Fold:
Amino acid sequence: MISRSIEEFIKAQPGKEYYVKLAEELAKLNKELNAFNNINGSLSSGYPLSVKDNICVKGMETTASSKVLSGYIPPFNATAVERLSAKGFGVIGKTNMDEFGFGSFGLNSESPARNPFDKSRVAGGSSSGAAIATSIIENHVALAESTGGSIAAPASFCGVVGFTPTYGVVSRYGLIDYGNSLDKIGVMGRSAARVRYTFDIIKGRDRYDATCVDLPAGSERKQASKKLFVIRNLLEHVDESIKKSFEKTLSKLSGMGFEIEEGELKELDSAIAVYYIIAMAEASTNLAKYTGFKYGGKVDDFSKEYNEFFTEAREKFGKEAKRRVVLGTYIRSASVRDKYYYKALQIRRLIGEKISELARKGSIILPTMPMLPPKIEDAGKMNPLQAYMVDILTVPANLTGLPHVSFPADYIDGLPVGAQIIGAPYEDYAILDLVGKWEEDFSYKFAYNLGSL
Amino acid sequence: MDYKEFERLLKVCRIRLSENETEEMKKEIDEILAYFDKIDNIKCEEDPAYQPIDLPEQLREDVTEQFNDIDAILANTKTYRFYVVGPKI
Structure:
């Protein structure tokens, strides 16, 4: 029903032509959706939906932005896509991302993403295309996915609402796994209400995912916590300009009647190391399934001996994917497994207990990213460890499966600055409620408003 | 990790790199591992958290389901008659 050529536009580098073509496509799409909604008796039943390229859509090429999967056409829908389609959401295309979700800037793919507010800057990753689409298309929501901050980071850099639910509340069936104990499918939109509307449809138990659960009864009525904690020791890693802007956000919130309190969680100082150890260990096993003959990209010469064939298939991985396979494989090797992997899992429990304890007393508020979106060339110059450190504020909630939502809280020199609210497990609606309240007195800005109805 | 050990690791991973790429990646990985080593100093006797949140056990009976779109699955592979073609084992 819906043209899929938008995929190509979103993957392309935005130039003037790009927006013109996209606007034409969207006009067509809106007509189709209106027709669909009229037939189904409701004008507001669904939104045009973009889907991150690691979530399967039946009949649409799904590659997780990896060459190893190029040409892979899923014969089924991910549960989240299936549920939204049934409610009248029309898939407009797949969105660009860092290969398999490996990146925080949107640069680890064939077409590096650019920020709609300033094309010389990064859009953030790994759900870069999802954030760009949300930032430029007026009537639209995006299905995105986060492992260590892949929804919050680009949402913050592109100035949209990016919501990552509690681990397990949205089915992962049909998601191309990165780290199974960390991956969460979530939603981006231009308002908390749109995100909530979409989340209502995708959440809840799924017989195809044994780790997927229902929210406790009555969760939908949960209101925002009046108490907000700032984790002071995490702010040590934040740029001065962001800190200043964050102080402004806090005083605005306290003017709205929220009680701000400071806390300290020293355990979080090891969160980046713990997160990357677990994520790489899991990623290195998940990537083993790309053998060069089952999904997507094929090795040409089938007469090759298996190990040689497999090695050749893996040459299609990008640099960061190769690095994570090597590190993850090492971390899981018998001689160091206890030192890295097992220890990281133990510390994850410790961190989870501490942060949940705080989140049960009141939600946690932090800046989403420690910096403004960097220039593409500056981000490209960072070494891997420096790039991993950028996740310092998004990793705590992701590592421990807590729901969190990033929302535009300020603008510095025309660039959006995001803040995030982290809730206790299953407090998904409470944190969305808070962002809804924030929006009553704060208007978001968008670089483009394409395809308005 | 010494160079030989790193080369062995690459072989186990079935990742082939040029000499320069090997040099570069080894350096990056040494740096990342040195950073990971900081968790050594943390005293922690907790049970490992394989899941971020303790989830209820949800078992179900195995039920056979019919998936009829065989062509769509096979379309992703190279086929010979009704078989999927793979490398020699």
